[in-house]
Design brief:
Glutathione-independent formaldehyde dehydrogenase; about 40% helix; NAD(P)-bd_dom_sf; about 100 residues; two-stranded parallel sheet; alpha+beta; 2 domains
Length: about 100
């Protein structure tokens, strides 16, 4: 992770990291990331981590998908338009 960071630069990870029991890497199975601390000490980088800021992009992304500007995502998103009065049943179906 720190191999490509300039001295005084920033290394960031964004996303959700958790245990991955099917990984071939022992650390990943436990949800650990390998950090080269000697490189960190020498380069003095800023290290940050956090969840991805999905709220910043969610509305624009959903509009693009619903307006057909990203047709390759539609099958993956499993989008179905329903009438408002059908919403209670749709929520029940979703819970099953």
């Amino acid at each position: 992770m720190l191999k490509y960071v300039r001295a005084g630069g920033t290394a960031s990870t964004v996303g959700v990291y958790c245990m991955n029991p099917i990984s071939k890497e022992p650390d990943a199975k436990l949800g650990h990331m390998d950090v080269e601390w000697p490189n960190a000490w020498i380069k003095s980088p800023r290290i940050s981590a956090g969840q991805s800021p999905t709220a910043n992009y969610n509305r624009a992304l959903m509009r693009a998908i619903l307006n057909g500007r990203m047709p390759y995502l539609t099958p993956m998103m499993n989008i179905k338009f329903i009438k408002l009065e059908d919403a209670p049943q749709a929520y029940k179906d979703f819970d099953e």
